[in-house]
Amino acid sequence: MKLLLTLCLSLLPAFVTAETISNKDEKAAETIEALGQPLYSPFTERYLLDEVKNLRQQLADARVELTEKIVTREIEVASKAMTYATDTVTYFFYLIAGASTLLVLIGWNSLRDIKERVGNFANDEIRRITASYEERLDKLESELHKKSRHIARAQEEIELTNEIHSLWLKASQENTPQSKIAIYDQILQLRPDDVEALTYKADSALLLGQSQWAHSLANRALDIDPDNSHALYQRACAYSESGSPEEALRDLAEAIERSDSLRLQAGKDSSFEPLRNDQRFIDMVVLPENPAD
């Protein structure tokens, strides 16, 4: 009875802590639901990028550590196997020596004949065992080379990611579209299939009034990722500015279907100024209460 009471008292703090955490999660969910607009800011973006960088670095370190442990274990297994083979051959020689002595005593064959037979058999067995372990060691060496190349590629990817991460931070600090485009071009040189860089470059092209250029960049991004809502939104902006309302409304509807938060952004975006009086556009977006906004 006393043991049961002690166990209940020890579990009580864990139950209270779990209930408190659940209450905090519910309050956080209610606060998020009550938000009127997204909490996007350069500081939030930089924090998220730093967190992604740390996670990738930790993942790479974990891979390297795991590889080292696997290699160490495989070498230990090979060493133990070689020891076992050596002991087996030694005991085999002892057994043959005893059997040879017995056969000499009963006159089955001469000592020289027995010695030659034992020697040939032992040599054949040693060659077989040696060949087997040489094959295993070759496979182990091949695996080590593959893992070394994988680690080298992972290290190169980490360095590339760090460089791209620093370029994104630099782009967030630039104030002019031309400066941002120059940085996005550097990112695309390092990683040509970076959809995010293509869409942000298209956004900067729209700010410069280059709707055709923005349209081409958005198409490149959609060729890589056809379901990218940001690329669809940028192409809709390009269509609107170039006087193609039907195509603009089509792409905007598809982008909003994939990301509902674009309703509010589209309602404030100056690229859709030609569509302000179109009822389909009005029904699709969330217009600001104060037109000056």
TrEMBL record:
One Pfam family here: TPR_17
Chain ranges passing through the membrane: 91-111
SUPFAM superfamilies, A to Z: TPR-like (SSF48452)
Gene3D superfamilies per record: Tetratricopeptide repeat domain
Taxonomic superkingdom: Bacteria
Keyword annotations: Coiled coil, Membrane, Repeat, Signal, TPR repeat, Transmembrane, Transmembrane helix
InterPro entries xref list: TPR-like_helical_dom_sf (IPR011990), TPR_rpt (IPR019734), Ycf3 (IPR050498)
Protein name: Tetratricopeptide repeat protein
Coiled-coil zones: 45-72, 123-157
Signal peptide coordinates: 1-18
